[in-house]
Amino acid sequence: MTETHSAGVRGDSGPQVAELVASRVLDVPDFPKPGVMFKDLMPLFADGTVFGQVVDGIVAYHGRESFDAVVGIEARGFVIAAAVAYATGVGVVPVRKAGKLPRPAYSASYALEYGEATLELHEDAFTAGHRVLVVDDVLATGGTAEATLDLVERAGGTVAGFTVLLELGFLGGRERLAPRPVHALLQV
Ligand code: AMP
To answer: Which of 29, 53, 125, 142 has its CA 20 to 30 A from that of 102?
Structure first.
């Protein structure tokens, strides 16, 4: 494991927040399979001061009054979503992997490098016009985010924003999601 080099870092909330994220991410080569550089944000979650500053950065970027609910994508998105929700006084709605939700749910499948993944969201998650902030840890190819944003809209929500702690720019997720805006605290 090596710590990500933090000189000259950039992100949509400016270099200071980008630097904070960069200081608490570990690069794990060949996980979960050979050739993948896993961006491990557990050190960020484990540092109460930095995690709090990162959450404050997310809230400051969107504005406290700009969303009515926060969606977290299983599983690391749940950690971020719960903190943002608590900081702003709104609720958390989980987007889960297939088969985990107990009541009727919308489902969206998307292609992975090998095979397919499915995400689900309770059909009654939102009332019409609910403004929803979606959060996750890492944006890679954008398939996970695209499926999640579609689910939010199918359930009657309006996507108020999409935030990730770290964006792997070379994988083109931002372009895939366009014209929907992406807010990435750190871009690599
Ligand atoms: P994607 O659908 O390709 O944008 O992948 C994004 C989802 O997979 C997020 O929920 C991430 O948690 C996870 N992910 C993909 N690539 C990585 C990576 N290199 N490091 C950490 N998590 C990743």
So the answer is: 142
* Ranges of each domain in the chain: 2-187
Pick the catalytic residue from 3, 65, 96, 113: 113
Question: What does the alpha-carbon distance between residue 54 and residue 107 come to, in Å, rounded to a whole number?
Answer: 30
- Ligand 1 close to Cβ of residue 76 (< 6 A): yes
Q: Is 137 in the pocket of ligand 1 (CB under 6 A)?
A: yes
Q: Which CATH number fits domain 2-187: 3.40.1710.10, 3.40.50.620, 3.40.50.1110, 3.40.50.2020?
A: 3.40.50.2020
For 87-130, how does the pLDDT look when each residue is reduced to its tens digit (9 = 90+)? 999 999 999 999 999 999 999 999 987 789 999 999 999 999 99
Q: Is 117:144 a contact under the CB 8 Å cutoff?
A: yes
- Three-class SS state of 37: strand
Cα–ligand 1 centroid distance for 138 (angstroms): 5
Question: At 116, phi and psi to the nearest 5?
Answer: -145, 150
Q: How far is the CA of 54 from the centre of ligand 1 (A)?
A: 19
- The residue whose two tokens read 């950065």 is 57
52-82 confidence digits (pLDDT tens) = 999 999 999 999 999 999 999 999 999 999 9
